[in-house]
Amino acid sequence: MADRIEPQVWSRRRFVAACLTMAGVAPFAQAASRQTVPFSEGDQPPVLAAPEGACDCHMHIYDPRFVPSPHWKNPPPVAPVSAYRLFQTRIGTSRTVVVTPSTYGIDNSCTLDALHQLGDGARGIAVVDADVADAELQRLRDGGVVGLRVNFVSPQSWGTTTPQMLEALARRVSPLGWHIQVLMNADQIVSHRAVLEALPTPVVFDHLARIPQPAGTSHPAFGVVTGLMRKGRAYVKLSGAYMDTVTGAPAYADMSAVARAFVEAAPNQVIWGSDWPHPTEKHKPDDAVLFDLLKQWAPDERVRRHILVDTPTRLYQFA
């Protein structure tokens, strides 16, 4: 299948590069370079140059030194920090947010180790259960964690995630200045609207808020999320376009329309994430092509800078 897709991807990249060249924009990022990256197709840098301080706001580290939770039955990929640094070399980003995957349950050891390796240019999002001790939250904070992920989609080590758990965790971390990151499908967002609107912390919606196709922006979840965004209460991650697409790669036209609509609704409330190493995908995407989608989603360079630098700096408490 990769052999059939590759010509389409490269022809699109040449077209974008030609258009930028005619517009007087450098066709390739100076900060990035040709680089083969595990769990990513291709080896060319993106057409768009990542600005200084650009942040990848959603990725996972899977290190074989850390044992998966017993509840997780699938073997995790081998995607350590050393492999992710190859991704940064190729794409040109310098900051990142490490999100604890469901694979490790409530054991955040792998994430904390990755934060230590990555240094000041990294922040973490942890996973805990409702009775987490204050001392554990402080330990996570000292290690670079700035928020919690509450997952309503993937299986959890403690069982079913509930709205009550979401509320309880938000109350716990609000004094720390953290936010809550939620993975919900669109129907769950609608059914939990009252809870989401009452949270004492900002809420970050994973993966384009999992808006389904073909409903797209007509789905009521889009209105719930954009309403919170316009009030400064929520953020959306421009990530995982492949999860709910029907039209598919490389343009992801249906999800690109959703991404553009989020940017237009509240350009200061959106951030970008790679979702590397793309754990949901059997056939890995080209990360440079995914990064270049930002040109369509946010044509204004100043808005792209907000998405990649300014908003992540504020939300993830980078100095």
**Based on DSSP secondary structure assignment, what is the total number of beta strands?**
8
State the CATH architecture: Alpha-Beta Barrel
Give the overall shape, derived from the CA principal axes.
globular
- Tell me about the biggest sheet? 8 strands, parallel
- Give the structural class: alpha/beta
CATH topology: TIM Barrel
CATH superfamily: Metal-dependent hydrolases
Strand order of the largest sheet: 1-2-3-4-5-6-7-8
Mean pLDDT: 91
| Helix content bin | 25-40%
- What's the number of helices? 12
Order of helices and strands: HEHEHEHEHEHHEHEHEHHH
* Whole-number count of domains: 1
* First-last Cα distance: 44 Å
The percentage of residues in β strands lies in 5-15%
Give the C-alpha Rg. 19 Å
Uncertain spans: 1-12, 18-31
CATH class: Alpha Beta
Describe the structure.
With 319 residues, the protein is of the alpha/beta class. It has a single domain (2-315), classed as Metal-dependent hydrolases (TIM Barrel). It is built from twelve helices and eight strands. The protein has helices at 2-22, 81-91, 109-118, 134-142, 163-173, 186-191, 193-198, 220-230, 253-265, 287-292, 294-297, 301-315; strands at 55-59, 95-99, 122-126, 145-151, 179-183, 203-205, 234-238, 270-272. The protein has an eight-stranded parallel sheet with strand order 1-2-3-4-5-6-7-8. Helix 8 (220-230) links the parallel strand 6 and strand 7.
